[in-house]
Amino acid sequence: MFVRLLLGFAIALCGSLIAVALHTPLPWMLGALIATAATKIAGVQSRSRTELRYAGQWVIGVGLGLYFTPMVVDEIAGNLLPLLLGAIFSVAAGLAGAWFLQRAGGVEFSTAYFSSTIGGAAEMANLSDRYGGKVALVASAHSLRILLVVVLVPLAFRMSGVTGSGLFAPAMTKVDPAGLAAMFALGAGGALLASRLRIPNAWVLGPMAVTILLTSNDMALSAMPTFMLNAAQLLIGWSLGDRYTPDFFRTAPRFMGLILVYTLVVIMLSAGLSLLLAQPSGIALPTLMLGLAPGGIAEMCITAKVLQLGVPLVTAFQVFRLAFVLLITPPLYRGLLMRFPALRD
C-alpha cells in the first residue's frame, strides 16, 4: 500500500512540475490532477488517501480566510442579491439537467437528479444512495463535471489574458511561524467541529470559518507561505485524479457523454448570467464567472487566488450556493415525486 501511495505522489509531483515548466494555469493542481487521472485510466495501480486531501483542504481553508478583512465582509454583505441569484440559477440548471439526463440518457429520475445537481460530489452521491439512485453513475458524473470545470475555466481565463487587480489582498503579507502554527491549530479544531456537525467540505469550511472570524476582527496571525499553498494544490489535484478508474469512460458511455454536454452548457449559461449581473452588481466580470462556475469550492477559490480575481467574493458565491443547494435538494426531490408520481418509473 505504501508503494502505491509513493507511486501516486511521484506521478502527481511530476505532473505538477511539467505543468509549471509549461506555464499552464494552476499548474500545481491541474498538473497533478491530469497526470494522476490519465495514469489511473491507463491502469496504473497508484493511490491517494482521504487524509491527504483533507490536509490540502485544511491549508486552503486557512489561506482563504485571510482575505476576509472587515472591508471585504461589508462588500459581501452588499452583494446578497447576486449571491441568491447565483444559488437559484444552480438549482434551476440542476432541474433542467435532470430532465435532460432522464429523457436522453434513459436513467431513473433519482440518478439523473443527483447527477445534475451542482453541489458537493460526495454529498450528492450519498443522497443518491439514500433515494435509490445509481451511486457509481452519480459519483462519475460529478467527477467529470469537476474535471471539465477545473481544466476549462482556468484555461479560458489564461487564453483570454484575464488577470486580477489584486483589489482584495490578504490581511497579512508577512509569515509569522508562531502565528501560522496557531492558525493551523485553531483551523484543525474548526474542521473537527464541522466534521462532527456533518457540515460538507468540513476541512475547507471549518478552518476557513475560524480564520474569517479572526481576520474580520483584525486579528490575522500570519500570512500563508506560497510553498504550502502549492503543496495543498498538489494534494487536492492528486486526490481528484485518484477517483478515476480504467473503466471510467466505459461505464455508461452515453450517460457520461450527456454529462459532458450538460456541463459545457451550464458553463456557458453561467458565463451568460455573469454578463447580465456584472453591470448592475458592480462586481468584476471574471470574479462573477468564477463565483458562478459549476465547480467545487476549493478548486474555484484556488483559481481565484492564483489569478487574483476577487477571492472573498468567489468564495462567498461558492459557499452560499453549496449551502443553498444542500438545504433545498432533498425536500425539492421529495416534492417533485409527490407532484409528479410518474418520475418514480
From TrEMBL:
InterPro entries: AbrB_dup, AbrB_fam. Keywords: Membrane, Transmembrane, Transmembrane helix. One of its GO terms (biological process) is regulation of gene expression. Coiled coil: none annotated. The chain crosses the membrane at residues 55-73, 80-101, 135-157, 178-199, 219-240, 252-277, 283-302, 309-333. Signal peptide: none annotated. GO terms for cellular component: membrane. PANTHER family: REGULATOR ABRB-RELATED. This is Ammonia monooxygenase. It comes from Pigmentiphaga kullae.
